[in-house]
């Protein structure tokens, strides 16, 4: 158990819908990262938050957004869903936003868009 | 964007054999990491490398950070059934914290 909690574990929704994925980081971790894992693109970085502020952005679609709340949990919002958005979405957290402190990954949310 | 070329894509080995996999990049990385992912789980960090030329072990696992900073390899000695999974290399550049992942090596250990 990495200490990073993601909910829900599985999500099935229809095209065009909007979903919210939730992540609770490890106790004391200020940085949260979101990654998408799909069969064709592999593991790709989406976005990072540090202590409530956006720190870095990767290949995140405009239909996707995220935020980190004062209690440090984070949510990834996916809207106008397409079949191609079906993937595993991982959250990871680390103690600080820099230095040699590596992130721990949650178990992921498997999103299926039908 | 940056890409990591990981090989081989899959490996079928007998229990007790040694395994080697590697990652190469056209870009320089200042950190190389190796992760293992099992079904239904997120990636778990195995080894972290922070200096060019660094050789680090974790039990039966050994990884090296290439001198050119553009490659890394992972060796697993005397494989056992619980080594089954997908192994990913990942790299980081500059002061950025996000990781670029390789495409993974699916390892199957036959009894």
- What structural class should be given to the helix and strand makeup of chain A? mainly beta
Number of strands of chain B: 11
Q: Can you count the helices of chain A?
A: 0
Helical content of chain B, roughly? Answer: under 10%
Number of strand segments of chain A: 11
Largest sheet of chain B: 6 strands, mixed
Supply the number of helical segments of chain B.
0
Euclidean distance between termini CA atoms of chain B:
40 Å
Q: What's the N-to-C terminus distance of chain A?
A: 31 Å
Quaternary structure type? heterodimer
- Unreliable residue stretches of chain B: none
Order of helices and strands of chain A: EEEEEEEEEEE
Q: Order of SSEs of chain B, N→C?
A: EEEEEEEEEEE
Structural notes for this entry:
The complex is a heterodimer of chains A (114) and B (111). With 114 residues, chain A is mainly β. Chain A contains no helices and 11 strands. In chain A, strands 2, 4, 5, 6, 9, 10 and 11 form a 7-stranded mixed sheet that branches. Chain A is globular and about 40 Å long. Chain B is mainly beta and 111 residues long. In chain B, the strands form 2 sheets. In chain B, strands 2, 4, 5, 9, 10 and 11 form a 6-stranded mixed sheet that branches. Chain B has a 5-stranded antiparallel sheet with strand order 1-3-8-7-6, with no helix packed on it. The A-B interface holds A 2, 4, 31, 33, 42-45, 48, 55-56, 58-59, 90, 92, 94, 97-98, 100, 102-108 and B 1, 31, 33, 40-45, 48, 50, 88, 90, 95-104.
């Amino acid at each position: 158990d990495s200490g990073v909690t993601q909910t829900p574990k599985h999500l099935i929704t229809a095209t065009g819908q909007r979903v919210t994925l939730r992540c609770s980081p490890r106790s004391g971790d200020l940085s949260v990262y979101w990654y998408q894992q799909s069969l064709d693109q592999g593991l790709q970085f989406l976005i990072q938050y540090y202590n409530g502020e956006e720190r870095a952005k990767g290949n995140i679609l405009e239909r996707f957004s995220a935020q980190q709340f004062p209690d440090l949990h984070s949510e990834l919002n996916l809207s106008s869903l397409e079949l191609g958005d079906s993937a595993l979405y991982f959250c990871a957290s680390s103690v600080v936003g820099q230095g040699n402190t590596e992130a721990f990954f949650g178990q992921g949310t498997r999103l299926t868009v039908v | 964007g940056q890409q990591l070329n990981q090989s081989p894509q899959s490996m079928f080995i007998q229990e007790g054999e040694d395994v080697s996999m590697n990652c190469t990049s056209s870009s320089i990385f200042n950190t190389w990491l190796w992760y293992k992912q099992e079904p239904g789980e997120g990636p778990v960090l195995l080894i972290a490398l922070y200096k060019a030329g660094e050789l680090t072990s974790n039990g039966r696992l050994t990884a090296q950070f290439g001198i050119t900073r553009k490659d890394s390899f992972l060796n697993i000695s005397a494989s056992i059934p619980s080594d089954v999974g997908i192994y990913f290399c990942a790299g980081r550049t500059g002061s950025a914290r996000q990781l670029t992942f390789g495409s993974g090596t699916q390892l199957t250990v036959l009894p």
